[in-house]
Amino acid sequence: MAELPRRDPSNAVRVGQQRAPLSDLYYNLMRRRWRWLVGFLAVLYLLINVGFGALYALQPDAFNGVEHVGFAEGFYFSVQTFATIGYGAMSPKTLYANLLVTTEALLGIIYTAIATGLVFAKFSRPSARVLFSNVMIVTRRNGRRYLQFRLANARGNELVEAGIHLTMLKTEISSEGHSMRRLHEMKLDRANTPLFTLSWLVMHEIDEESPMYGEDAESLAADEALFIVTLTGIDSTFAQTVHARHFYEFHDLRWDHRYVDIISPHSPGRLQMDLTKFHEVAPELDANP
Question: What does CATH list as the number for 130-283?
Answer without folding.
Answer: 2.60.40.1400
